[in-house]
Amino acid sequence: AQGLIARGQPIDRAMRMPFHFFGGVNKQGQWKPGLYLSDKAAKVITEAKFSPAGRFSWMNGTLEAARAGLIDRYGLDADYVGRERKRSLDERRIMMEGVEVLKSLKDQNVGVSEAKVLQAILTGEKVDDADMGKLAEPIRNAIDELGQEAVSLGLLSAESFERNRGAYLHRVYAKNEVDQTGLSRMVGRMMSRNRKKIIGDQFKGRGIFLDIDASRLVKDDPEWNLAKRGRPVKGEKFRVLDQVEMQEDSLADGAKERTVRRVYWPADRDVPLKYAGFKDNGLWEIRGEKGGKLVLWRDYTKAERANMGEILDARYNIGKTYMMMAHDLATGRFYKDIAENEQWTVSKEPAAKWKDASDAGRYWADQEIAYIKVPDSAIPQSGGKKRWGALAGKWVRAEIWRDLNEIEIMSRPTVWRQLLTQWKLNKTARSPVVHMNNIMSNLMFMDMADIRLQDLKAGVQSFVSRDEHYQEALKNGAFGADMISADLRDNVLKPILEEIAKAEADASAGTFTSKARVLSKIADRLWTWAKLVDRKMLDAYRIEDELFRMATYMRRRQMGDEPAAAADFARQQFLDYDIRAPWVNAARNTVLPFIAYSYRAVPLIARAMATRPWKLPKYFLIAYALNALAYGWDDDDEEDRERASLRDEEQGYSWIGVPRMLRLPFRDGNGLPMFLDIRRWIPAGDVFDTNQGSGAVPIPAPIQLGGPMMMAAELALNKQGFTGDPITNDLTDDWWDKAGKVGDYAWKSWMPSAAWVPNSWYWTKIENSLKGATDAKGRDYDLPSALASSVGIKVKGQDVEEGLFWHGYDMKKVEQELRAQARALGRKRERNLISQGEFDRSMSSIMTKMDNLAEKRAELGRVAGGDDEADDTEE
């Protein structure tokens, strides 16, 4: 018996025994007939078509369009999908190289002062420090190797690389890293994000660019003109001289400079005395042409960069360099491999039908289109480097372009997408209730994949210790694409930034400025604490999934999976939200913000139930036993009566066959039976619920409307979609009342539902229990229940008598409405507004509803243990 228990899942093994004899079970614990049927069903959904000669052949086009819009990565071959997965692994590997470099610097005790010296060496300055020179050499070589690869991939010109060889680090400015707050931080992060979509702006020229006519370069020197000298060429340099004057500026509260004349003077000629009083703006170099104009460039001076707040800490800049280059290099390799695969890309115009990318759009699904021509656009101010790398200007398979284009669209930085992201975070990662729901549902996802509790324990230990199993899982992409960048940013770069800030603060300690900033520092410290809590909640939300993925990866490796297959299974089992289906993405970015969860969860659950059909009876058996124990412990045999008193949405069973509300074996302080709401603990637990709102048409919970667009619609219609209640009362509210109610609605709709958020639902619930508020019968609100609910353990004391009363009251209201409809029909018939046939049909429908209502009332009376309370309303 001990051996059976040690192996884990004793109930599963017992209930799985019959399936060994009827069809057999494979080494992954899947029932073979169920696996076969599941694969066949998937093939029908993704591939089946009507016969071209059949009567429904006309639907094939519509079917193809629907599949292209709804099925993730529709039509892509496995080799391409595998190569796209490898892109993320390449990105992680490059970033991990950066992490290793920073770890080596930490091991050699490189602090703020040493990092400044190292920064100078790595950016080409002459520094008399042999030890730091030796330390810089391998770092310089590593960064140069990245640059050389960028040249080979067409991301960086050989000229630019040679210009910066041995002296390149990504420039970082403090104002972009620490000074921004609120909306400016949000927009700045959005606009500077290293986008996953396509090659970004890492290799965009840095410095100042000017676009000017060629004639302006020569008009100030009669001996140097276009006729004698010819058109200036790339590489030539000019000195830019400005004649300035001071003018009054009321807005600036003083005077400011105004340029009245600008002169471009050849660098190889002496500047005439007549320009001696002009302001020298430095030497500028011709870098190319744009729209018929010459492009002049010069780098920022050291003084200008210092004034802009450049961070001169090599550790921080090395980390940022690796972060910025990792994505573009990995993407450049990906595009190069696609371009070199003759099955995916052609360099010459194909004989098959094709479209230009600008004409293809997003939602197209024309079966006749075989290729799409990739845009030949360049990265701005990069010297003509192509944004689509090796793919630029070539013809790529239509299904591959659909995938690449969807990545580009979904990663395009917009204010709307950022607002929606913040709203989603408020409703998920920043809500303790969702954390609890996520953990509990992950436990079920884990069980559906036959991952045992001992596997979870081992996975947690591996994740915490970062042992060889964790490193292997990380290397093979078990944790998704963003984990390394988040770890590098939060655990490596952020501490360095804080160390830099502390060193600067210590240097200015005791000065008048530092004393004047005391109040600002206090406020900043409070803000820092708030940000720390917020970051920890966001990290926890990510880690909750990663712990289960780690356990799943280790279990699948034990089952014999290869590392890549185990990593892919672990990532998919706990819902990979990287979705390339255009229609689904359009919905999740408008009025269905959480549709991605159902899109991933429902097929996963369906496959699990088909391949492990014993899971459902196991869940039912466990729930039945717990429910029976609860009533046995409480010595209560009124289960039917108690459950009948619950609200309609709390009654019945979830899709796994267990009650939505589990009876607990104790009562609250008022002697009321306690129930635990487990609907949100079950993956897609509300998937069949259609009573989650007040719409005219019952909408299943997985496609419930929400998000900022829904908020705007509810405000416009003055009606809350979930409850059906008006937001303001036009009959009694003045403008002040309406402003308060609209503000209250907007606050509750936007902010996280957390106990520490003032005026949120859980804040109010706990506040009522603390101040001694009572319910309608004078009973105190239960503080333990309020606290438990605020962290996702939704328990409630059920007043059986009150619940039965309200059910009876609702039935009376229904009866009164039906009788009112019958009287209205009678009046219409008397006025000949409807025919006798219409009257008879409508009255028959009403009588049928009355009969059904009578049956429900009789059943309620039976369960309640008394007579029908509505008899006295009969007419």
Question: What can be said about this structure in brief?
Answer:
The chain has 875 residues and is an alpha+beta fold.
Number of individual domains: 5
Percent of residues in beta strands: 5-15%
| Side-by-side strand order of the widest sheet | 1-5-4-2-3
Unreliable parts = 179-202, 511-517, 867-875
* Whole-number mean pLDDT: 82
Q: Tally the helices: what do you get?
A: 33
Plain-language structure description:
With 875 residues, the chain is an alpha+beta fold. It has 5 domains: 2-68, no CATH class; 78-172 and 314-410, no CATH class; 428-580, no CATH class; 615-794, no CATH class; 801-873. 54% of the residues lie in helices and 9% in strands. The chain has 33 helices and 12 strands. The strands form 3 sheets. It has a 5-stranded antiparallel sheet with strand order 1-5-4-2-3, with no helix packed on it. Strands 6-9-8-7 form a 4-stranded mixed sheet. A 3-stranded antiparallel sheet has the order 10-11-12. The chain is globular and about 110 Å long. It starts with a helix and ends in an 11-residue tail after the last helix.
